[in-house]
Amino acid sequence: MNTQILAADSQAIQQAAAYLRASEVVAIPTETVYGLAGHAFDPAAVAKIFAAKERPQFDPLIVHLAAEPGLSLAALAAQRLICAEQIPQHLKAGLERLIQTCWPGPLTLVLPRHPRVPDLVSAGLPTVALRVPQHPVAQALISQTFPLAAPSANRFGRISPTHAQAVYSELQGRIPLILDGGPCEIGLESSVLGIEDEQLCLLRPGRLGISELTELAQSPVILAQSHPAEIKAPGMLKSHYAPRLPLFLAESRSDIQRLLAEHAGRPGLLTLSTLPAELMQELQHRQARLCCLSADGNLAEVAHHLFAGLRQLDQEDPPAFLIAELPAPAEGLAHAIRNRLQKAAAR
Ligand code: TXA
Ligand code: MG
Fold first, then answer.
1. Which H, E and C letters describe the chain, residue by residue?
2. What is the pLDDT, as a whole number, of residue 169?
3. In a 10 Å sphere around its CB, with 0-12 CB exposed, 13-18 middle and 19+ buried, how is residue 161 labelled?
4. Segments of the chain scoring below 70 in pLDDT
5. Nearest bound ligand to CA 236?
């Protein structure tokens, strides 16, 4: 199959809509990462998403919805996406506030699934993951078509794509069309929030963290504990978002120096901000490849460039190994960035 990349103008969006109506899958930009989209209620289209990604069928998909006015739990139930009556009563007000304040945007809610949602979308779970993306191209496409099931547009276990060329290098020959909407603004996948033991529970950190979500919901949000025996979200698997090269993590600049001394060969470095002159000298001496994610350690900028930087170091003129600098542990973006880098480094 020939994979076309088209700038996402209205004609290209119409072409994507035609593919989707014909049970095909297309890659689309969102504000978080690129998604591989198909008709959420069409099992043939959903099966193609799993096949193109080589994704195991135990890993459920997010259903992307139109940003209609009046989004609410009742509206989701009326669209036959969720069973609102199965949501614990004391959590409803908090969820309504999150729907009102975070949608459209980088928040996915995992709620009791309506039987109309195909089993394959939810991997047979009694819940369904829902998100209203903010990106104008994603919105234009969904509003012309139907709810779209869309995982990140990478092969399973690999780094999520944040620009159209990255999708191409992951899925070329497997899908007919990539809509190019430029680089994704946020650069990390959405925060995934579910219900565990009758509590709101963050299953995957993203730009929205525990304290911000707690404040917006006006109701406590707790962090999911990963149970080794039970996968709540494969985004919770220990190894995920993995580059091909060995990746080591540095908590500090002295950690970078230690790792450089411990490992022979040409290093590749992903740093949070500009490095001091002596360290730069040593790196030049080792012919290191450098990718500075933000001049001044701005974490929104770091997140925006993170996956593209990791992908670039991993693929072009690859060094012998990679070192990535971790942000200091903190709530919100720092937590999400640490989470993605720790998964990328886990073997
Ligand atoms: O930002 C995003 O969320 C991107 C864009 C394309 O929207 N999508 C994305 O999809 O990251 P994916 O499939 O790569 O990650 C979805 C995560 C997975 O960790 C999956 O296991 C979890 O959401 N998930 C989906 N449905 C679930 C469910 N019913 N219960 C628990 N976790 C679920
Ligand atoms: Mg993914």
1. CCCEEEECCHHHHHHHHHHHHCCCCEEECCCCCCEEEEECCCHHHHHHHHHHHCCCCCCCCEEECCCCCCCCHHHHHHCCCECHHHCCHHHHHHHHHHHHHHCCCCEEEEEEECCCCCCCCCCCCCEEEEECCCCHHHHHHHHHCCCEECCECCCCCCCCCCCHHHHHHHHCCCCCEEEECCCCCCCCCCEEEEEECCEEEEEECCCCCHHHHHHHHCCCEEECCCECCECCCHHHCCCCCCCCCCEEEECCHHHHHHHHHHCCCCEEEEECECCCHHHHHHHHHCCCEEEECCCECCHHHHHHHHHHHHHHHHHCCCCCEEEEECCCCCCCHHHHHHHHHHHHHCC
2. 96
3. buried
4. 226-241
5. 1
Q: Considering every ligand atom shown, identify the ligand nearest to the alpha carbon of residue 124 and give its number.
A: 1
Q: Is 327 in the pocket of ligand 1 (CB under 6 A)?
A: no
pLDDT tens-digit series, residues 205-262: 999 999 999 999 999 999 998 644 445 555 555 566 688 899 999 999 999 999 999 9
The ligand whose atoms approach the alpha carbon of 231 most closely is 1
Q: What is the pLDDT of residue 238?
A: 58
Q: Judge if the beta carbon of residue 191 lies within 6 A of ligand 1.
A: no
Residue whose CA lies nearest to ligand 1 atom number 20: 233
- 74 CA → ligand 1 middle, Å: 23
Pocket test of ligand 1: the residue of 152, 227, 339, 340 to mutate, having most ligand atoms within 8 Å of its CB, is 152
Cα(127) to centroid(ligand 1), Å? 12
